[in-house]
Amino acid sequence: VHPNVSQGCQGGCATCSDYNGCLSCKPRLFFVLERIGMKQIGVCLSSCPSGYYGTRYPDINKCAKCKADCDTCFTRNFCTKCKSGFYLYSGKCLEKCPDGLEANNHTMECTSIVHCETSEWSPWSPCMKKGKTCGFKRGNEVRVREIVQHPSARGNPCPATTESRKCVVQRKRCQKEGKGKKNREEKRKKSNKDDNKETRQESKGRAARRQNREQRENNNKTQPKKRKAPNKEQDLAPADTAH
Fold it and tell me: Is residue 217 part of a domain?
């Protein structure tokens, strides 16, 4: 240490020298040596730089180097981020992941192997051919399933999500577009027409019966009542007695 020690230092130093920089730091700051050319300069920082970890002591807080393969660490034996070419696993930096694990090149960590998972098959679709369900005898029907978990790099790949099989249906002719609707409309109109016809016939029948009844009543009112024929035996009896 250069003997020229100063108390009026800059940059968080409590004590310093012109040759070595900071010799001690103000409270809560970390002391670290930075190499500049052939010499090291002491600096005081609020947190340790990359490749270092901090330790606190009663008299001074220091930054110590992580292991050579570790980029950032919590302690010397527990790494939190590895340098390029290494994979993090349980605080250590490894060139190759253990069995049962795979290297994740995105996070540079050893992770569990994930296999593909799919849902259950859907029901079979109607038998179709060229997008139609009529006009043919042999067609195809399909069913599908969804991928619910995509696999990792070393996981089992996903199976097929679509299946198809041949099917046979009773041949039927395809109705022209709008023909089915037209037939239903014609049937409805015909039904309404028949109902109206029956209603008119019933109305005519009731009117005819009412007219006949009224005519009979009028005839009964206009015709004179018939006189009762005399009893011949009663009329002849007095004449025979007188004779």
Answer: no
106, 123: one domain: no
Global confidence as pTM: 0.48
Domain count, the chain: 3
pLDDT in tens, 91-147: 999 999 998 899 998 889 999 999 999 999 999 999 988 888 888 888 999 999 999
Alpha helices in the chain (DSSP H): 179-222, 232-242
Q: CA–CA separation, 159 vs 120, rounded Å?
A: 12
Same domain assignment for residues 48 and 90? no
pLDDT of res. 88:
95
How far is the C-alpha of 134 from the C-alpha of 35, rounded, in Å? 84
Question: Could you report how far apart the first and last alpha carbons of the chain are, in Å?
Answer: 196
| 238 located within any domain | no
**Count of residues making up the chain:** 243
Sequence-ordered list of residues with C-beta below 8 angstroms from that of 52, at least 6 positions apart, any chain: 32, 63, 64, 65, 66
C-alpha to C-alpha distance for 65 and 50, rounded to whole angstroms: 9
β-strands 78-82, 70-75: how paired? antiparallel
Q: Are strands 30-36 and 21-25 parallel, antiparallel or unpaired?
A: unpaired
The closest alpha carbon to 82, from 67, 93, 97, belongs to 93
**The domain containing residue 145 runs over which residues?**
118-168
